[in-house]
Structures are given as structure tokens and as C-alpha cells.
Amino acid sequence: MRQLTPLDAQFLHAESATTAVHVAGVAVLDPSGAPDGRITRESLIGLLRERIHLAPALRLRLVSVPFGLDHPYWTEDPAFDVARHVHETTLPMPGDESQLAEAVARLHERRLDRRHPLWEMHLIQGLTGGRAALYAKVHHCAIDGVSGAETLAALLDLTPEPRTVEPPQEEARTTAPGLVTMLAGAVTRSATHPLRALRSLGRAVADLDAIPVAATLPGARLLAATTRVIRGETKTLPALPSLAAPRTPFNGPISAGRRFSYGSVPLADIRRVARTFGMSVNDVVMALCSSALRSWLKERGALPDRPLIAAVPVSVRTRDRAGVTVGNQISAMVAPMPTDVADPLERLRTAGAVMRTAKRRFAGSPSAWPSELTSMVPAPVTALATPALFRLAALGAPPVNLIVSNVPGPQFPLYLCGARLLGYYPMSVLSDATGGLSITCFSYDGSLDFGLVACPERVEDVWRLMGHLQEAMDELLELAGPAPAPAPAARPERAATGGPVEPSPV
């Protein structure tokens, strides 16, 4: 018996007419090494049928508790059919990057059918150069970024020849309880909820200075520090900078439409900048994003005079739960982005300093405030109030300006049905509360692959923003100075890629 956690349920109930809450990504594939030189829907379905037992989240569907009295349960779908979830389409000529991005954006807009397991795959043929693409999405109530990467890894191989996978062993099936057991559990949890909510409140108050909006309230830092002392926490934590998010074009009510752009920068370039300035790869990614956002906002006369505020998802899975592949084990660091700093070198160093402070604070007191806040709300209220609260957040002061996420991946080539994976461009969620833009990146085989998702009412030219990211990389490389003489390499790095990019205004 497996029930959604309060955080999982929050992701489920955050969906509305304008918000689809799924984790997704686009894999660009070279099928020249596959059988017959192409990847087909039939071969993909066959692979999934052989390995579906390695990805439990893909076999489960939701069962709701009557009247929404408790969070839903997961159960094995007795009518599960892989073929129902796998689709195929072909791009019109010429099949370029902008056409792929447009097709993917339309798929990303659509919510998943809750009558079935919450995932879809779309094989997209006709990409230039004989390539193909695979767009896959899974509901965020079922997976987070790390478990999503693990789910994808179950389908991939180290060579064009698919590996042999052991057949599934007999194991206990995940089933939802009966109606009487559901209702009894709902009554019990409703009776004990006040006590659990009080415990969660105490833990959340200890993190009050790290929670969006709450951190800006008068006395938030003092109250948080006092609560930590009362709870017996003796570590002195670094003070966080102001987390007051300015109003930007990214923030406000979003529409149901989506736009997508993607591209890559060489991971070796990111690492060279990181080594030169004594920073981490994550720090450089935040500096890159800060520079790109600054350029985009400045072009439109909408650059705030204080930093943008980003939510940065962080995995909090512990070693004993490392194999759990259903549900979310994430928190978030909330950090300023130095978009208000004009000098590129100072902006880079400020981004590094801000992220080091945020990481020290998180390491000293691993914050689980998203889980604690959602645990404080009774299940029936969560289902009814979440969409309204998110829309209300969009009308007031924004909690954050956007989400920036960086997921580490393997640095060697992978294959799907014999087709080589050339790049993987992740896609995240947009909501009224978190803004009409998300930037997600995934490191793979020598490149850092960016996926940008935007609401067209908020960001009308998402390709231009991708162009600014690549310009920001050039700027950082210039700051880092000449590259050292290259050592002999076993394979070349992938070149920077992307779709249509407008020239920079003079």
C-alpha cells in the first residue's frame, strides 16, 4: 500500500486549466546505428515491455479517496498497456530545431490522463540530419528530477547492442486499500492531523528565514534563530541575503500555452571557468543564467534594481531511500541571482558567493520546508485550495521569479534501441506561484544541455533567451582567459547547439 505524501499531493492538486505539472525532457537521437538505421514506435514499445519492471512509477495509477478526504493512493493498473502511452509523429519539412521545439511545446501543454498511469512518450521523426527525438513526460506527483533520471536510465544502454535485463521476480504488487480501509485511514489521519501539523509548524518556523515571502516578514530571522535554539540546534548558520523577489515580466498569472527552446554549451568550458575562479559548476550555471536574464530584461527596459530570486530544487533523498523511485524527495534552496550587477566579473563572483552561502546554510540545516508546509494543510483543503492559492500568489508579490535546476548526468554516450543519445534537454513546470519561465539543465557526454520552458504571455521570444545564455558563456570564457593547450582526447566534445538566435542589438 503506497499513498501520496503531502508534497506529492501538492504537485497533483497544483494542476489547473493553465498549469500542467509534469517532469519532462527531449532526447535527440542518432538512429544510424540502430537496426535498419531507424528507431520505431514498435521497437520502443518492445523495449518498454522488457524493462517496465525497472521503472515502478510507470505501472501505477491513482485511486482517489471518496470526497477527497485523504490523499490518493497508488495501485497497479490491471489494464496497463505500454502501447497506450507511446505515440509517434513526424515533423513537416525541413524538420529543424524550431519545428521540434514547437511540437514539443504543444505536447508539454497537455495534462496527463489520470485514469491511467501518469506518463507519455512521443517519438518524433523527421528531424534534420536523419535524427529523431523522444519527448517523455511523467507527472511530478510520481517522480522528482533524480528519480526521473533513474527512470530514463532504465531504458538506456552503454552500447548500441541492448543489454540483457533479468526478467521481473515475483514481488508484492502495489494495491490501493478497499473503501472501508481508505475511509478509516482518512478519519484517523484527520483526528491526528493537528498534532502532526504542530510538529511541522515548529520545523518550518526554524527555516522561516529561508522560505519565500515568509523570509521578508519583520522579525523572521530572529524568530527562526530563536526556534533553532529552542529545538537544541547549536550550529551557527550563515545569514541569508534578502529573499524579496522583485516584480518582473516573468511573474503574474500564466496562460495554458507553452514555448520551448533548447541548446548546449561545452561542459569543459563551464569547468574551465569554475577552475579559474575557484567555483563549482553549479555556481557558474547560476552566473550564466543571471547574465542571460539580465540581458533579456535590459533589452525590454524591465531590469529590476535588485536581484531576481530563484528557487533551486535540491534532492534530499537519504541513503536508505536511494532506491525509492516513486514520489518526491526534494527541497529547495532559494537564492538571489545577481542580475542587478553590471560588471560581468563582479556578477560571476557575486553568484559564487551567494550560492556558497546558500549551500552552507542548507548543509548546516537541511531544509525540508516544502514538505513541512504541505504537511500542515489537511488533505481535503489541499485539493480544494491549491490552485486558488497559486493564482493568488501570482497577483501579489511573487514568492520567487523563476525555477533554475541543474541535474547531473553521465559523461559517456548512451543508447536507446540502438540509437545514440546526442543530447537530453530537460523541461520543468510553470505555475502562477513560481513564474512563467523555468530553466533546467542536464550534463551529459561533455555538454551542458539547457531546456527553457516559458509561458508566451510572459516570455514571447524564448529562443532569444537561449541566445543570451550562449552569449553569456562567451563572456565568461573571455574573463577566464586563453584556454590551456588541449590534452589528447578519446573523443571530441559536442559543439554548442541551439535553435534560431537573433543577433544581439548594437
UniProtKB/TrEMBL annotation:
Its EC number is 2.3.1.20. The keyword Lipid metabolism applies. Keywords: Acyltransferase, Glycerol metabolism, Lipid biosynthesis, Lipid metabolism, Transferase. It comes from the Bacteria. Residues 327-476 form the O-acyltransferase WSD1 C-terminal domain. Residues 4-285 form the O-acyltransferase WSD1-like N-terminal domain. It is an enzyme of class 2 (transferase). The keyword Lipid biosynthesis applies. This is Diacylglycerol O-acyltransferase. It comes from Planomonospora corallina.
